[in-house]
Design a protein that fits this description.
The chain has 308 residues and is α/β, with parallel strands linked by helices. It has helices at 40-47, 69-75, 91-101, 107-117, 133-145, 163-178, 190-196, 213-221, 234-241, 263-276, 291-307; strands at 2-11, 14-24, 29-33, 55-60, 63-64, 76-79, 151-155, 182-186, 199-204, 206-211, 224-229, 248-252, 255-259, 281-286. The protein starts with a strand and ends with a helix. The structure holds adenosine-5'-triphosphate and magnesium ion.
Length: 308
């Protein structure tokens, strides 16, 4: 769906994107994370054929960037950071204008479909200048989808939205994914990336890491379970430390934080041992690092690499 090989973009002396290599699969939600100025929007603009790369190659929906830009623009939808709408036109007129530009077959039907899907049908004949930020954002998302592109670029789709509007947009992204479309989105909302994305790419000029949220956590921290006990006794500690598959065991109050590779197989043995040693197990859960922790570790790693 998207194949990028050594793509770079330079603005004067400023190397905004440095040798990006990346594959995004069909039907996947791919979240692009990185600090301000990391090159996320620049990447999206190159991939949507809005600006030309300085070097490297990329294919989007099997069309090559810089060679087949017309077909790329036709086959993608894009929500930009500051989507311009015609403020004096109403919602229907705004969408109809784009639908005609994109040679959509049944303009009236498509416009109605997306206005209804995004909850704007009731406000369809009001001038967009009077819309709230969230309503404008939803309208811009509708506009990106009118021509039913298989691939959608969303640059910070929920930035500046209130929690309810953000949830509507997130749910909508989920629905668009269910339809089998591919979504490439930039976001600063780590929780959103964690919930929506199949894979996450962290960029800071250079791509630092790409993987599923679960694998990112695992590769950084391994897996750890937390065993809550009525009391942690010496006998329990010894029983746990005697297990060959334990990489670490730390006591925090009445819990033991235990490092192991495969909780699915090893937890039953762990619990058996604790019980045999007289421990009263109340519950066991996996320690889950927040994506925020993962993100900061990766960004720091990226910084160190640059410094070297
Ligand atoms: N049109 C342009 N002319 C000159 N420099 C630009 C232009 N567009 C982007 N840049 C520079 O490229 C770098 C990457 O910017 P970009 O907008 O891609 O970052 P971003 O990751 O989207 O950041 P943010 O999270 O703030 O949106 C920045 O240093 C920016 O100043
Ligand atoms: Mg940006």
């Amino acid at each position: 769906m998207i194949r990028v090989e050594g793509l770079s973009k330079r603005f004067g002396d400023n190397l905004a994107v440095d040798e990006l290599t990346l594959h995004v699969r069909r039907g996947e939600v791919f979240a692009f994370l990185g600090p301000n100025g990391a090159g996320k929007t620049t990447t999206v603009r190159m991939l949507a054929a809005l600006i030309a790369p300085t070097s490297g190659r990329a294919w989007v929906n099997d069309h090559e960037v810089s060679r087949d830009d017309m077909n790329i623009r036709r086959s993608v939808g894009i929500l930009t950071e500051a989507p311009g709408l015609y403020e004096r036109l109403d919602a229907v007129q705004n969408l109809a204008l784009y639908a005609k530009l994109y040679e959509v077959d049944d303009v009236a039907r498509q416009v109605e479909r997306y206005l209804r899907l995004l909850g704007l049908w009731g406000r369809r004949d009001e001038a967009v200048g009077g819309f709230s930020k969230g309503m404008k954002q939803k309208l811009a998302i509708a506009r990106a989808l009118l021509h039913e592109p298989p691939l959608l670029f969303l640059d910070e789709p929920t930035a500046a939205l209130d929690p309810e509007a953000a949830r509507t947009v997130r749910d909508f992204i989920g629905e668009v994914k269910e339809e089998g479309r591919t979504i490439f989105m930039c976001t600063h909302n780590l929780d959103e990336a964690d919930r929506l994305a199949d894979r996450i790419g962290v960029i800071r000029q250079r791509l630092i890491q790409v993987d599923s949220p679960a694998n990112l956590r695992r590769s950084l921290y391994g897996r750890r379970v937390v065993v809550h006990l009525a009391a942690v006794t010496e006998a329990v500690r010894q029983a746990v430390n005697g297990l060959p598959f334990i990489s670490e065991c730390e006591q925090v109050d009445n819990t033991l934080v235990v490092g192991l590779d495969s909780p699915e197989e090893q937890n039953p043995v762990l619990v058996q041992r604790i019980v045999a040693a007289g421990g009263a197990v109340q519950f066991v859960n996996e320690l889950r690092h927040s994506l925020e922790e993962v993100y900061f570790s990766l960004i720091q790693e990226g910084e160190q690499e640059v410094a070297q």
